Amino acid sequence: MRTQVGIVGAGPAGLLLSHLLHLNGIDSVVLERRSRDYVERRVRAGVLEQGTVNTLIEAGVGERMLGEGLPHSGIELRYGGAGHRIAFEKLVPGRTITVYGQQEVVKDLIAARLAAGGDIRFEADDVAVHSLEDAPYITFGGERLDCDVIAGCDGFHGVSRPSIPEGVLTAYEREYPFAWLGILARVKPSAEELIYACTDRGFALHSMRSPEVSRFYLQVPADEDPDAWPDERIWTELKARLETVPGFTLATGEIIEKGVTPLRSFVTEPMQYGRLFLAGDASHIVPPTGAKGLNLAVADVRVLTEALTRFYADGSTELLDRYSQICLKRVWRAQHFSWWMTTLLHTFDSDDAYARRLQLSYLDYVTSSEAAATTLAENYVGLPYEAAR
Ligand code: FAD
Ligand code: DHB
Q1: Is the ipTM of this complex over 0.90?
Q2: Relative to the alpha carbon of 10, which ligand is closest?
């Protein structure tokens, strides 16, 4: 079997790449380890930057998102007994975020690929990438896929990155001493906008998916067992961390999904080797506090699409050669923002009273100075894409 671009992984990165390449007349095959049902149900991120929303609309896959997504023009930072709104409409006029579940984006992309006759192989076993320097090919389930280029879109635990010879990549990494317990609950959101709460008991986040479904996260110890969190305990803790301002009551309901996500910062440089190009979580991870993971994957894929389109148009590898350099600028901005939001809002066991005072002082600054609030707002809604050329 032969295609132009062999794509490993049917997450947002791999699926969007396959779709954008198709729109530019380039063929691809997507190889995914899991079933279609599994990837369509995997609950993860929920905040789409303006640029991500525009990318999906321009690519013709934004219809359901425009109908069901929830546009937001602010978030609340809640601490010290008060809520403080970061008002995007004032700080970054014309730019908003849209709350729309990652698995909905994945469903929309799979539907678009299949409608266009796209080739996605779900439940592909033993995927391995070979001969990355010149004539790359992928093996899976006893088959062989020859291609011009391989896109490694297989997430942090995928096979693509570890297939690059030792010594080529440099990894930059930071682990955090806590994780997030994420839940989905069948209950009307208790607030119209997202609430990021910093308390002495730890961080909590109130998000949503629809007028009937809410999404919550709680800071918990690293490697926490979700079974240590029966529903009753989750609601008690969410109330303790969120019902901290006068007049706010948290509505509770049936918990329909529960999972623990470790928090990690990770970057590999470069993001390419020979004919293999890494995109999304395969090459970088951010802690979710800044809601950047999915949005960064989209930004990588935009650059890779443009570079591959140029390559197939006139044989030029000039943009492909600069792929890592172009992407890493945005990647590192998002790394810093995500680390900063995480540090600003979480409780660190190692913190002494002095460190806690510094944190509160910074929160006061961000919520009172227009300059500081604008820094948060412009990063949160997403900085403009740089022209790749
Ligand atoms: P993924 O979505 O990880 O997709 C990779 C795909 O490759 C998967 O479908 C996987 O099954 C497949 N794959 C892996 N290995 C192989 C293989 N060997 N062969 C074939 N296929 C393979 N970000 C936020 O902003 N907010 C959040 O709340 C949030 N929560 C998260 C919760 C979890 C549990 C995780 C893991 C991530 C979360 N993220 C969050 C990050 C965000 O979801 C990711 O940044 C985003 O999914 C990146 O997309 P991707 O396509 O690069 O990778
Ligand atoms: C959601 C996830 C995030 O990481 C975040 O910062 C905000 C919202 C969410 O899943 O809705």
Answers
A1: yes
A2: 1
